[in-house]
Amino acid sequence: MADNVFEEQFDKISAAAKEASEKVHSSGQQARAQVETDVSRARDRASQAADHLKDRAENAHDKASEHWQELTDKWRAHVAKIRNDLQKKKAQHEAKEMKSYAEMAEGYAFEAIDFAQAAIYEAEYAVLEAISARAASDATAV
Fold this sequence. Notes:
Elements: H1 2-27, H2 32-59, H3 63-91, H4 95-141
Helix pairs in contact: 1-4, 2-3, 3-4
C-alpha cells in the first residue's frame, strides 16, 4: 500500500519537471510579456510549494521533521533574499544593470537546478529506504 503512495508521489516529480521543461523550451519562442506572465506563475507555484513544505514540517512532530523544518526555513530565507536581490536589479533599467541582473538570474537558475537534482536523488533514497524499512518491519512481524 505505502509503495503505491510513494510511487504516486514520486511520479509527481517527473510530471512537474516535464511541465517545467516544456515551459522553458517554449519560452524562447514567446513574446517577452508572455514570458513575464510565465515567470509570475512559476514564482507563485514555487511559493505555494514552499508554503506546503513549511506546513507539513510544522504539523509533524518527529526529529526528522525538525530537520526538514530547519532546511525549509533556510531555503525560504535564501529564496526571499535572492528574489529581493533580483527584483532590485530588475528595477534598474540601465543596460549595464540589466546585464548584471541577467547574469545574477542565470546563476540563480543553475543553482536551483542543481538543488532540485540533489533533492530528487535524496527523495529517491528516502523512498527506497522507507520501502526497505517497511519490508524489514513486515518480515519481523510475521
